[in-house]
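Work Package 3 (structural annotation) set out to generate three-dimensional models for the target panel prioritized at the project kickoff. During this period the team completed the workflow that converts sequence records into C-alpha cells, so that structures can be stored uniformly alongside our sequence database. As a representative example, we reproduce one entry of 185 residues exactly as it appears in the project archive.
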Amino acid sequence: IDFKKVMDDLLAWEGPKLKVLKITGFGEPFLNDCAADMMSMAKKLDIAERVETTTNASLIAPDVAQKLVESGIDYLRISIYAVSQERHEKFTGNPIKVETIRRNIETLRSLRDSQGLKKPFIYVKMLDCADESERNKFFDMYSGIADEISLESVHRWLDGGTRDGKMVCPQPFKMLTVRVNGAIT
C-alpha cells in the first residue's frame, strides 16, 4: 500500500482524525530511508493528534536526527535493550556499540534544543532486567539527554495476554501503525 494513498484516504475520511499514527512496528523504522519523510508528511497533513515512532536509535546518525527534528514528529520512543556491551550483544545479536546509540540520542537532543524546539519528545526505556547495576547505569547514561526515562515491565499484549483484565487489544481502535516495509496494520 502506498503511504501517500493511505494519507489521502485518511484526509477524505469524515470521522475524527486518528489519536496516534505510529510509523514503526515489528522492525527498525529507519531501515526505511523514507521514514522521516513519512513522519513529516503525516504531520503536515495533520492526520493524527500525535505522530510517533519506536526505534532502537542505532540508525539515528546526525543526518537522520536532523530530518527527525524537521519532521515535527511528536514522540520518539527509544527501546534500549541493555547498557553493558556484552548484555546488549547477547540480547540483540548486534555488535553496534551502546555508546553509539547513546551518542545518536544525544545528537538528536542537541539538534532539537539548539533550534529551540520541544519535539520530538524523547522517551528512553529499557525492559527491567532486575540487575541493580544495569538499572543504575541506564539512568546515569540517559539522564539529561532524554525527556523521560523509564524501566518497563515485560508485557504480553501481542501474544493473547490480557491488559487491564481485557482480552481485546485496544490499539486498533485508536492507532494506525505503518511497518518498516510500508505495510499498514
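The chain is about 35% helix and 20% strand.
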